[in-house]
Amino acid sequence: MSSDKPESAHGYWLKAAEQGRSELEWVVEFAAMASPCQILLHGVNRPTAERLAALACTEVHRIEQKYSRYRTANSMATLNHSAGGVVSIDTETMALLAFADQAYQLSDGLFDISSGILGRVWHFDGSARLPEQSAIDALLPLIDWPAVRYWHNADGTQAFQMPAGMALDFGGLGKEYAADRALAAMSQSGLPGLGPMLVNLGGDIATNGVLFPEHSWQIGVEPGTLGGNGGKIAAFCLTLPSGALATSGDARKFLKKEARIYGHILNPKTGWPVAGGPRSVSVCANTCLESGLLSTLALLQGSQAADFLDQQGRQYWLQW
Asked: What is the pLDDT along the chain (320 residues), one digit of tens a residue?
């Protein structure tokens, strides 16, 4: 294996793939959105791989910088600190808000990006610390997506308004959106001879097609179940012919108290983790954004997750 130090401008590590079919296979590794990330490139030479890596990493970091709720001077902070006033938004933000509205309608209010405010009292760090009911109750009135307004002005600009005290969080769709955008940045680069590509942002995956005519992508999925000693049960492998894959579950974010696992998917109507559902849901769809939405909506259905996914007509995998 050959490797280089991370590029200072883009923060990635490019190395030749192990056990590759040829010298034209590359692995790009970097960190973003609090996750280990990886890009797989096939059929391109090293200079092209470097240009593709730079494009993809730049796009992922741009989205993280713009929409992370943990940053204090970005587009998300502008929305959440608007204190009831009207603020201007760009076309990209407008589209994400429209997608969030579609998700809200599709889920009968169970997917609500204003419920991110519950992160003030829920901290899924693997401990046994549950919030007090009174702390949850104090936040529930601030979860109210229908109160959010966004519109097109006559001059072609877009505007946004939200009641004071509320806060939005794109965390439920940010990585999936970034995976799709990173893949698009590479696919639309105009570079010649592009081959199969895969973007993996902490388990949220987008591909531009099959790996080879006779081979599909083989994806290892981190499990959402715990072994008797508290360790993770071995991951399983699934086949992704093309398109995208997203997995939602409690493998990384959970609380455990008195042998009960509390996953990080919260019901915005109660403020508590959804009970009775699968520990992990993986869904294959055309885009990572669609895959992520369906996997999250399935978890929000609790024990009816499989019935919900059957109605969507998408390939899926559940772990209970």
From this structure: 344 555 545 678 888 876 555 567 899 999 999 899 999 999 899 999 999 999 999 999 999 999 998 888 899 999 999 999 999 999 999 999 999 999 999 999 999 999 989 999 999 988 989 999 999 999 999 999 999 999 999 999 999 999 999 999 998 899 999 999 999 999 999 998 888 999 999 989 999 876 665 667 777 776 544 433 344 444 667 777 778 999 888 777 888 888 888 888 899 999 999 888 888 899 999 999 999 999 999 999 999 999 999 999 898 988 87
Q: Please report which residue ranges of the chain form alpha helices under DSSP H.
A: 46-67, 75-80, 91-106, 133-139, 174-187, 288-300, 305-312
Distances (CA, A) of 135 to 128, 130, 272, 319: 16, 10, 12, 31
Residue type, 199: V
Name the DSSP class of 122. Answer: -
> H helices within 23-117, ranges in order?
46-67, 75-80, 91-106
Domains of the chain in sequence order: 1-69+170-208 (no CATH), 75-168 (1.10.3980.10), 212-320 (3.10.520.10)
Rounded to an integer, what distance in angstroms lies between the CA atom of residue 242 and that of residue 205? 10
Total-model pTM: 0.89
Rounded CA gap, 266 and 38, in Å? Answer: 28
- Cα 64 from chain centre: 11
Cα separation values, 243 from 4, 92, 112, 183, 193, Å: 30, 22, 26, 11, 20
Per DSSP (E only), the strands in the chain are 13-16, 25-32, 35-42, 86-89, 149-152, 158-161, 197-201, 204-207, 217-221, 236-240, 244-249, 254-257, 260-263, 280-285, 316-319
